[in-house]
Amino acid sequence: MKQSILFSICLGGALLFGACGGGASSGGGGAATASDRAAGAVAVPEPKRAVARIVAEYPHDPEAYTQGLVWVDGGLYESTGEYGRSSLRRIEPIETGQVVRRVELPDRYFGEGLALVGDSLLYQLTWREQRCLVYDRRDFRQVGVFAYGGEGWGLTTGGTAADSLYMSDGSAWIRVLRPADFTQLRRFEVRDHRGPVQEINELEWIGNRLWANLYLTDRMAVIDPATGHVTHYIDCSGLTTRIGLRHDTDVFNGIAYDPASGRIFVTGKNWDKLFEIEVDL
Questions:
Q1: Smallest Cα–Cα separation from 67: which of 201, 245, 243, 199?
Q2: Cβ(278)–Cβ(51) under 8 Å?
């Protein structure tokens, strides 16, 4: 997402084009269906609470307005936002935070969520431009684009099969999409014991759950994708005491997971550090 308030201490070159059947950021799937309404009527248990523990700290470019983060082959791919400054980056090794490859987005695009599809493609959302840009991850050559309705916020692949994408749009709704053509397969509302959870932002698939940043907060939500229920809230407020504060230091955002080692990495918009964390759920 978006022009947020400043963080305060407080397949060849073929053009791919599809539509995801979404609307605006009120949910992107049109009128509520009977199953949507039934899901909203189910009582949701109060989420459990957990606190993130810092395992390690690594340098991170404080000019990177982080919108998406993906771990692949010993390093990170990162999507950054803001008009005129959005980019796609490869960071390797994380111990130095060196950006070894970078491509700038056209000024009309505001970069958003990022996901790896298969072994070779990176999908990058845009905020209000309703376009998902598709790249060959080896050389950052753009090989396609998809269209969708509403805003683009977070994006991740679902599990190891990568046969579906999960996309947030700033509302309480998550869309499940087919990677081949970006059509919507279904959608579900994220809820806790108090009701819908709004402003779902960056997404990451960890184990059999979706982890999500919640915009303008220092918490992550752990979501059961089968029900949309939040099972845990993770307090990450301790991270903000370890970063350098500048005039443009902004909110907590960015989650990446290495399934081979189980390591979890998080950062924020214009943060000068990337954190490896542990969480007991």
A1: 201
A2: no
Position 105 pLDDT exceeds 60: yes
Q: Is the peptide bond before 106 cis (omega within 30 degrees of 0)?
A: no
Q: Are 75 and 280 in contact (CB under 8 A)?
A: no
pTM value is: 0.86
Buried b (16+ CB within 10 A) or exposed e, 177-188: bebeebebeebb
- SS3 sequence, the chain? CCCCCCCCCCCCCCCCCCCCCCCCCCCCCCCCCHHHHHHHHCCCCCCEEEECEEEEEEECCCCCCEEEEEEECCEEEEEECCCCCCEEEEECCCCCCCEEEEEECCCCCCEEEEEEECCCEEEEEECCCCEEEEEECCCCEEEEEEECCCCCCCEEECCCCCCCEEEECCCCEEEEECCCCCCEEEEEECEECCEECCCEEEEEEECCEEEEEECCCCEEEEECCCCCEEEEEEECHHHHHCCCCCCCCCCEEEEEEECCCCEEEEEECCCCEEEEEECCC
Collect all residues with Cβ–Cβ distance below 8 Å to 34 and sequence separation of at least 6: none
pLDDT in tens, 115-139: 999 999 999 999 999 999 999 999 9
What distance, in Å, lies between the first and last C-alpha atoms of the chain? 27
